[in-house]
Amino acid sequence: MLRITDTIQIADWELVETFTRAQGPGGQNVNKVSTAVELRFEAERSPHLPAPVKTRLKRLAGRRWTTDGAIVIRAEETRSQARNRELARERLAELILAATVAPKRRIATRPTLGSQRRRLAAKTQRGEVKSLRGRVDDPE
To answer: Which of 61, 83, 110, 116 could form a disulfide with 78 if both were Cys (CB 3.0 to 4.6 A apart)?
Structure first.
């Protein structure tokens, strides 16, 4: 059971882990032991996620979201398979937790009278500077 919040918990049957050989350092261990973890979570079909969380999760996941609605996370940082499993689960939990936060709606505000006057004064001053850039006539 992967606990995200008090209300959202992902069951173990929803997570599919596959193990492959990792790239990078490790000596002969790299050639023998499958330490890299690919964690697959069928987010689109998950009964534990509300619909708004799924839509935000799809946007946050980016390339990790597959066409059939699954999230694929690959972890191969350490030489230990158990630690890579933990890292992949932590990343998934962080991603889902970030998707649970609803963005605040922006409240439109009007500019103050002082800021409008300052903006117009700056525009007129800039226009005067530009108008003085013309050709200079020689008085002689």
So the answer is: 83
- The whole-number pLDDT of residue 115 equals 97
Residue carrying structure tokens 């933990």: 86
Assign 139 to helix, strand or coil.
coil
Half-sphere exposure of 130 (CA within 13 A, CB side): 6
pLDDT digits (tens, 9 = 90+) for 24-60: 766 677 777 888 899 999 888 888 888 999 999 999 9
Query: Which helix or strand (DSSP H or E) is residue 28 part of?
Result: helix 28-32
Among candidate residues 2, 40, 6, 4, the one with its CA nearest the CA of residue 20: 40
d(CA 18, CA 87): 14
Nearest Cα neighbor of 42 from 13, 69, 8, 4 is 69
CA neighbor of 20 nearest in space, from 31, 9, 28, 12: 31
Query: How many whole angstroms separate alpha carbon 79 and alpha carbon 74?
Result: 14
On whether the pTM is more than 0.85, the answer is: no
Contacts of 107 (CB under 8 A, 6+ apart): none
